[in-house]
């Protein structure tokens, strides 16, 4: 038996068939520094509520899967040290052994499926890391998108990743990659990249219908919606490129590997941009939450 604890708000939304948007918790524990991590988590939830949908932030606490967290739990996750970062490989083990951990994109998709939630908002997904031809470091997020029927709204893929290879893996895995209201595949801190997204949609209703159609056709897997960062919050790629290269060089020199790579790079880029990367990150996560709420509302009518 999976021990699932729904917040009162999510429980009521489920009973009423209301739109619900899943949110991950690794962004809180490993993606942003305190106190902004806790402030943003609460703000993103309010963004979703203000559009008439209900947020469901996921985490594993003492072997129970929580779907919807209260303010005290968000605060304690945001200040705790050494919280596990749970992905597909260790999610079940954590539940089975009374563990505590934050959910990545992959684990949040699994949790959303268990809770019957079809839409999930985050900042950026994991992808194919630079040098993957040597390290084989490809995020489990990509394979999850191929098999779990959740539409994930993200701001594209970060330039800490090998973005062309990330798109290739998504194509091989049959994951629809849908740019929102533009042709270019967004590059997280920048609204556009030199890469064209395979698909483009200009409204939430189309994205919801495409999600629904995959279900009707019995095609497993989800969709990746690539929502560009608002223009006024962008950081030009030329400013970031040398900073990312420096962070990557440091990671390689220190032998950082596995689950540590993404948090290490995010933290170093935060330091090297003197916090500017975080300001952009906050703007894009909130923007993604709003689009996810619109998609969830459309899906609730289908
Ligand atoms: N990208 C971000 N912020 C994050 C993450 C990725 O911009 O917080 C987190 C997400 O939880 C994502 C995970 O699922 O890192 C990917 O980790 P890995 O590369 O180890 O699969
Ligand atoms: Mn990895």
Structural class: alpha/beta
Helix content: 40-55%
The fraction of residues assigned to DSSP E strands is 5-15%
User: For the report, how would you describe the main beta sheet?
Assistant: 11 strands, mixed
Which small compounds were modeled alongside the protein? pseudouridine-5'-monophosphate, manganese (II) ion
**Class of the largest domain, according to the CATH hierarchy?**
Alpha Beta
List the defining traits of the structure above.
Indigoidine synthase fold; binds manganese (II) ion; binds pseudouridine-5'-monophosphate; 302 residues; single chain; 11 strands; alpha/beta; eleven-stranded mixed sheet; 2 domains; 49% helix
Could you describe the 3D structure shown?
The protein has 302 residues and is α/β, with parallel strands linked by helices. The protein has two domains: 1-117, Indigoidine synthase fold (3-Layer(aba) Sandwich), CATH 3.40.1790; 123-302, Indigoidine synthase fold, CATH 3.40.1790.10. 49% of the residues lie in helices and 14% in strands. The protein contains 13 helices and eleven strands. The chain has helices at 8-16, 26-31, 36-50, 71-79, 88-96, 105-115, 132-135, 140-147, 163-172, 204-216, 237-253, 261-272, 276-299, and strands at 4-6, 20-23, 54-61, 64-67, 84-86, 101-103, 119-121, 151-154, 177-180, 199-201, 223-226. Strands 1, 2, 3, 4, 5, 6, 7, 8, 9, 10 and 11 form an eleven-stranded mixed beta sheet that branches. Strand 5, helix 5 and strand 6 (101-103) form a beta-alpha-beta unit. Helix 10 packs across helix 13. The longest helix is centred in the C-terminal third of the chain and has 24 residues, at 276-299. 50% of the residues are buried. The model has no long low-confidence stretch (mean pLDDT 95). The site of manganese (II) ion has 3 residues, from loops.
